[in-house]
Amino acid sequence: GAAAAAAGHGGRERHVLLFPLPYQGHINPMLRLAGVLRARGFAVTVFHTHFNAPDAARHPEHRFVAVPDGMSGRPPPVSVGDVVKHIRALNAACEAAFRDRLAGVLAEYSRDAVACLVADAHLLRMVEVARRLAVPTLVLRTGSAACFASFLAYPLLCERGYLPSSSQLDMPVSELPPYRVRDLMHIGMDGHELMCELLACAVAAVKLSSGLILNTFDALEAHELAKLRRDLAVPVFDIGPIHRFSPAADGSLLHQDRSCLAWLDAQAAESVLYVSFGSLASMGARELVETAWGIAGSGVPFLWVVRPGLVRGCAAPGEPTRLLLPEGFEAATRRRGVVVAWAPQEEVLRHRAVGGFWTHSGWNSTTESLAEGVPMLCRPSFGDQMGNARYVEHVWKAGFEVGGELERGAVEAAIRRLMAESDGGEMRARARELKKAAAECTGKPGSSEMAIVKMVTHMLSL
Ligand code: UDX
């Protein structure tokens, strides 16, 4: 089949080149894709920036090529607006250097040994460079199908007045149910032009390419995928949840504290709440205090990731996590909870002791959680997270959103609802059904498995 095809093509190894956007939530799915392609017989070359460079030593099976980004003096982005500007700056800064590196690789491998480049949707300039060098491209978009559909509809939604005005946040977006205005990607009036540009570039990257790869699966987004396939001229490959095909692809930028796994081993089944807000989302010092006392007051065992940078204005990287927690918190929760700076999340979610996930609703976290049947308490903060939370609550019914100001009483009540009350139990049952559906999609002859076969065949035909 396709597995043999890549390795056996004309008796020569075929190469796929990858270029992830240098953020954790984008590096992880791209390295998992690398694992999938390697397993199907391709040789993989990963281009990467110096900023947030992946650890090549942990992936001896791939080749890594650094692309100078000329941005070493620049402080890492903290706000959403910063991230959007950073993405634009990275595109500009890497373009020429990527052309050089790509030309070098092409000279080395011979042009027809290279099947294609797969670039992150936010790297339009790299897609353009590859095209000029006659290298076919595919695009990996790391969010949901629904989210990408909203990118396509964005100009129309702006024309119809949904955005940038934000006075009617709860108005349904009738073109994209079940989204409300608040669920769309937006960063307010000031950042509106920038956001429009970001999304238009992602759409352009896909339209210039020969295919769109999405980390989603049929049981989750059948309707949204069908709509994308109608609206796009390029094939769409729904190969998620991708970590299921490539479980060992660890692309963590921070050290994962594995000691928490032994602690989980000693806990009762489905008793622990896992709390993590991903790699970028942050909170104010006051929100952290309310979160801490809400967790403590709930009486529920917990594993909480407090990463460096989680609390705005505090903690230089490297500062011990526990210094961020309110005084008395450790004593109040001793033996009932563990706080770490970064967790092996995939394994944590797979652990039998974990019964709920309080998440910022990043797309990777959402799919990782659903694939393990873990229901969610959603606290989205920016980007596609609001839309993801909307689907979790409204469509998949595998969790609910905790909105408004964070206050310890509300946090306590939300945790109890998820972990101990009957409607939390219903959400757990829904999550379990989705776990089963995900396993069917990734098994043989599931839709995601078939999509991988089609993607590989497509790559070999370009
Ligand atoms: C960002 C956006 O928030 C997200 O919505 C978008 O779709 C991708 O980029 P991020 O905020 O980091 O990503 O969240 P998420 O998408 O959930 O990715 C985080 C990744 O880090 C996950 O793969 C998760 O397994 C991993 N992780 C997180 C750890 O390995 N350890 C942790 O302690 C926390």
TrEMBL record:
Keywords: Transferase. This is Glycosyltransferase. SUPFAM superfamilies: UDP-Glycosyltransferase/glycogen phosphorylase (SSF53756). It comes from Oryza nivara. The keyword Cell division does not apply. The keyword Transferase applies. It comes from the Eukaryota. It holds the Pfam family UDPGT.
